[in-house]
Design brief:
Helices cover 58% and strands 6% of the residues.
Length: 927
């Protein structure tokens, strides 16, 4: 087989890129002198034959074997500017012929079979557009289109897959020795041409020289880019990249370096990334916008955000303004680390053209500058950018700004896609704006933007979150009706919503569907289902559900812990122990299982078992952590077992796990609660000895303990210690001081503490105010007491004790009218619920001669099932005595009450009813 090149335009000429000789003109009917390449010594006829075969194999590709990049957020164009059709002769850098003559010419290629007969003749158009070799295009001309193409119109070759097998798995690739058949994976068929065969060869052959042998000298820039991108392992990609450079006959351009930076960055090979960058500098390969975007992206996603910001600063310092894609990467970076303000500021600077220092030619507000230096209006943003901004505003909680961006998108004629609507729906729903969610769904219908599975998943989640489980279930069914198959997220979201509401029937129906489809239930949902069955009283079913997952042998330690906790929180300690033992049998015990089991024992008040389990941890090769100690110490302290708790505090200290005063505080508080102040102070001093500084809570516990005992001196000493250590006195401590000062009658100190308490944002609470009312009432300081009482009423904080203390104060000071008004108000508000309050009202009525009201109050007391005490009968005795009942008779009633409470109460009520003229509806005997 041989080829003959016929030239029809003698005005065209070819130049070798590296040749120092004069140009060789090409005459009509003569063969073309091979263009010289480094390490490429094959005859031109063989190379043209190889290119012809590659053209035939490219017919397998879709759309005429056209190859393109996968969409990439950095290199969004997906186009290699240096790519030339594979059958154009190339110089040593793979960029095509040089010094083009700005004309079109046509070339006929004749191929003959072995007998010398012409097998076929195909005509191609060589179109040299522009002044660079890389713009050269060679296109196949059909006979009927010859004239048209000669006028400058280029038609793509009709490359319908003639060599494609019916199964689509076999591709043909030509080399110098003939045709090579290669079985290729389907995943590469999208590229067409020889790429599937090359990628298959690279996967099956480790030696690169052997793998690339059939195509060694004919790979285009774009093909090499795709080859690098398709590598799964960074080591292999780097090996191929180095092979391209070592060959010397390939141009390695900035796009190839961008690809390698991305591959190495994703693999977190930062040393290799820096080496590749330094190599770019050495080779004087200028980084472009996407280069910096790639570096910012990989460093940000690799957790090295400070380095990513440094790349951004370097980009700015070189006067290069980020393009829209790079801007999106930076905004995403700030968004992912929660710095939403910085994300917004960066976008605003970018949109106003102020991302780089002001230089001549920089554009001003309202426009941004593209890579070519041309200005573009702010509104010329892609839907991807709008989506990024909307999502950023949404995560920052700036609903208004997100909505404004969405509205701007609509006004500018950018049609929102499903991603846009999903983001808006999620944001609106999370903010409780379900009406807006409905409007967005309607807008999707108007714009013919059908919801996808994620849309329905969001809707299911949002309505379940807002306790509208019926609507959530409707959206699940609507998704099915729309021919969208629910994914595992759909099932898990709805299943969890059913389980937390103990909707057993609905949950089991979903489980059956998932089992039928082979969808796995995750461990989070599994533990929720355990709790569902336990909460529904289906203890046996809950255990069977646990066994279903346990017997698979794949349960994680976290899942065992969640199951132990589920049983333990409900007091099913036996089942919790069984789960714990199952975990132990599988040798999966961690500190987490011990912690939740200790908690389960504490809930069931099995403190000895909790301590024994804790003490056995080290026997299982597990060591307690801070959570283990804190949980046990808090449990024992709350159970009024401070001595035991103290022992574990000391063990925790010995293990070096005490880094704050919290465990000490729990035990000190427990000692103080039991009145064991000496032990509390001893532990406090022990804590100080370990250089653990007490906080305001510890000081508050001690000050309150001294307040309870009325020890002003000791309380004042710890208040001074607080101030010396720089710990601010809080409202709790001032409350304790007010309690202390009112108890001992220190008016001036109490007033000072109360004034300080009111300076806090929360102000004085009802307890402190009642203490001050009591202090003022004992001193007959009526005006001051009334001022505090009126303030409590205004804030709707006045309680039963507030009214009772005011009543006592008025009664003691002979203000019976005011006292009676307080008593009537207490009845209206339903504040007569306490024995002390009833006694105060009875004493008031007895003192003021209101015997009928006293009898009615006594009846209310008995109806309320409040047992009268000595103070009650003392008030009733005063009433009987004033009504003429002899003192001896009253004494007999009192003696009978002490001997037999029931008979004595009956005697009192009978006598009171007979003495006092009371209407039938308040007959005390009925009680």
């Amino acid at each position: 087989m041989f080829m003959k090149l016929q030239h029809f335009d003698t005005s065209n000429c070819f130049h070798s890129l590296l040749s120092t000789k004069s140009n060789n003109s090409i005459n009509t009917g003569t063969s073309v002198t091979p263009i010289k390449k480094h390490n490429c010594h094959k005859p031109q006829s063989q190379r043209l034959q190889q290119q012809k075969l590659r053209l035939e194999s490219s017919k397998l590709g879709k759309n005429g074997g056209k190859m393109g990049f996968d969409k990439n957020p950095i290199e969004k164009s997906g186009k290699d500017d240096n790519f030339i059709d594979s059958f154009v002769p190339r110089d040593s850098h793979g960029s095509g012929v040089n010094d083009l003559c700005h004309r079109s010419s046509s070339v006929r290629i004749k191929s003959k079979n072995g007998s010398g007969r012409v097998k076929q003749e195909e005509k191609f158009d060589v179109n040299f557009r522009g002044g660079s070799a890389k713009d050269a295009k060679l296109k196949k001309l059909h006979p009927k289109d010859s004239a048209k193409n000669q006028n400058g119109f280029i038609k793509k070759p009709d490359c319908i897959g003639k060599n494609k097998r019916e199964n689509g798995l076999e591709l043909r690739s030509g080399n110098l020795n003939g045709e090579v058949k290669t079985k290729c994976s389907r995943k590469w068929l999208k590229y067409g041409g020889c790429l599937p065969a090359i990628l298959e060869a690279l996967e099956s052959e480790s030696d690169l020289d052997e793998a690339f042998k059939p195509w060694e000298h004919s790979l285009s820039n774009k093909e090499r880019s795709i080859i690098l991108k398709e590598q799964v392992m960074w080591e292999r990609a780097l090996e191929i990249f180095e092979w391209f450079k070592r060959k010397g006959c390939y141009e390695v351009n900035v796009i190839h370096y961008n690809i390698m930076l991305r591959i190495l960055g994703r693999a977190r090979r930062w040393d290799e990334v820096e080496r590749v960058w330094e190599e770019m500098v050495e080779r004087r390969i200028e980084p472009v916008n996407s280069t910096y975007g790639t570096l910012i992206d990989v460093y940000s996603k690799g957790g090295l955000r400070e380095h990513a910001i440094k790349w951004l600063e370097l980009m700015r310092s070189r006067g290069m303004e980020p393009d829209e894609v790079t801007m999106g990467i930076v905004v995403q970076m700030y968004k992912n680390i929660g710095e939403f303000k910085k994300a917004e500021e960066f976008f605003m600077k970018w949109s106003s053209g102020k991302c780089v220092p002001e230089r001549p030619g920089n554009v001003g507000l309202g426009s941004t500058r593209g890579m070519n230096g041309n200005t573009k209006p702010l509104t010329s943003l892609s839907s991807y950018t709008y989506n990024t901004l909307i999502d950023t505003y949404g995560k920052a909680g700036q609903v208004k700004e997100a909505s404004e961006t969405f509205d701007l998108m609509l006004r500018e004629g950018i049609v929102p896609n499903t991603v846009t609507f999903n983001t808006m729906i999620h944001m609106r729903g999370n903010n409780g704006q379900l009406d807006e969610v409905s409007s967005l769904i309607q807008k999707m219908e108007e714009l013919r933007c059908p919801p996808d599975t994620r849309t329905y998943n969001i809707l299911i989640f949002l309505h379940a979150k807002h306790d509208d489980i019926d609507t959530a279930a409707k959206y699940f069914n609507k998704m099915k009706a729309a021919a969208l198959e629910p994914d595992v997220v759909s099932y898990r979201t709805l299943l969890y919503a059913f389980s937390v509401r103990h909707m057993v029937h609905e949950a089991e129906a979903l489980i059956a569907e998932m089992d039928k489809r082979g969808l796995e239930i995750d461990e989070f949902t599994q533990s929720a289902l355990i709790r569902m069955y336990i909460g529904a009283g289906m203890l046996k079913t809950s255990w069977l559900w646990f066994q279903r997952f346990h017997l698979t042998g794949t349960m994680s330690s976290e899942c065992y812990s969640a199951n132990i906790d589920a049983f333990g929180e409900r007091g099913y300690v036996i089942e919790a122990e069984k789960v714990f033992n199952c975990c132990r049998e599988g040798n999966q015990l961690t500190v987490l299982e011990f912690n939740v089991m200790v908690k389960a024992y504490g809930i069931s008040k099995k403190y000895n078992e909790a301590c024994c389990l804790f003490d056995s941890m080290e026997q299982h090769g597990v060591f307690p952590d801070r959570c283990s100690y804190n949980s046990l110490i808090q449990m024992l302290a709350s159970a009024d077992l401070p001595e035991k708790a103290r022992n574990y505090v000391r063990r925790m200290q010995h293990a070096g796990l005490v880094d704050d005063c919290i465990p000490y505080c729990a035990v000190i508080s427990s000692f103080a609660k039991l009145g064991k102040l000496e032990m509390a102070l001893e532990l406090f001093q022990e804590m100080i000895g370990f250089n653990i500084q007490p906080d305001v809570v510890v000081y508050g516990v001690l000050i309150n303990a001294f307040a309870d005992t009325g020890n002003v001196k000791e309380a004042a000493r710890y208040v001074d210690a607080m101030r010396r250590s720089g710990v601010q006195i809080n409202a709790v401590i001032y409350n304790s001081l007010i309690k202390l000062y009112t108890k001992v009658g220190y008016l001036e100190e109490a007033e000072e503490a109360y004034e300080m308490l009111q300076s806090f944002e929360v102000g004085a609470d009802v307890y402190s105010s009642n203490c001050m009312i009591d202090l003022y009432s004992k001193r007959s300081m009526i005006r001051q007491a009334e001022k505090i009482f009126e303030n409590l009423i205004r804030k709707k904080q006045a309680n039963e004790f507030s009214y009772a203390m005011m009543l006592c104060m008025y009664r003691r000071n002979g203000k019976f009218l005011e006292a009676i008004q307080i008593a009537q108000k207490m009845k209206e508000l339903g504040l007569l619920t306490d024995l002390l309050s009833f006694n105060n009202v009875l004493c008031l009525y007895a003192s003021d001669g209101r015997y009928k009201e006293a009898a009615e109050t006594f009846k209310e007391m008995l109806v309320s099932a409040i047992q009268p005490d000595d103070s009650t009968f003392k008030a009733l005795g005063t009433i009987l005595l004033k009504c003429g009942v002899p003192r001896e008779a009253i004494g007999k009633h009192e003696l009978l009450r002490k001997e037999d409470a029931e008979r004595g109460l009956k005697a009192w009520t009978t006598t009171l009813s007979s003495v006092i003229s009371i209407s039938n509806d308040v007959d005390i005997d009925d009680c």
